[in-house]
Amino acid sequence: MIEAVGLSKYYGNFAAARDVTFAINKGEVAAFLGPNGAGKSTTMKLLTGYLAPSAGTARIAGFDMSVERLLGAERLGYLPENGPLYPDMSPRSLLTFFGNARGLSGTELERRLGEVVDICHLEAVIGKPIGKLSKGYRQRVGMAQALLHDPDVLILDEPTAGLDPNQIREVRKLIRELGKNKTILLSTHILQEVEAMCNRVLFINEGRLVFDGQPADLGVEQRELDEKFYELSKGARRT
Fold this sequence. Notes:
This protein is α/β, with parallel strands linked by helices. The chain has two domains: 2-75 and 152-238, P-loop containing nucleotide triphosphate hydrolases (Rossmann fold, 3-Layer(aba) Sandwich), CATH 3.40.50; 84-150, no CATH class. The chain contains eight helices and ten strands.
């Protein structure tokens, strides 16, 4: 459902992503781990078609995002780290706007609006200006727009960034629920996210994929996770 084949992005001599190759199958929830600046967001933008690769191929549900981006986008929900949530709009008006852009209208749009508002628990703020909402509610609005067209694939960039512990718990619960019938790739540098939500781990550093395996392969204790994170980060710099 999500596939990267030799995916690379260069800015002059700097490689933001370098020969990244992996495949995520239907029903998997995969964590994209790595330190800040490792290339997680760049790789996600390449996968979604937001950026054109310097080399390699990105596919969503089998569609090459370089030449079949609109077809791939129909199957994809994308939550960027800092999504375009217009502060003067309400969640309802924003979701209506995105729904229209996705080709939804009439009773179908109203049905999907009701479903994502319920899933993301936006009832209490549906008519309030987004600029007045807490970070947690804004993140829920972003999640709702990613879910609006009921995609098979979700790509979520730092979905719990900036949230307080209660908000993080709510977002993690939502992602676990969504993972029951969707394929999800989420980026994070928070190790606790892995055991809380994921059944697969990809670790990237300096634009290179340096680990692809199960969460248990990283360890179960916090000390083990911290040590593995450090080892993978340091190891990539030596190569």
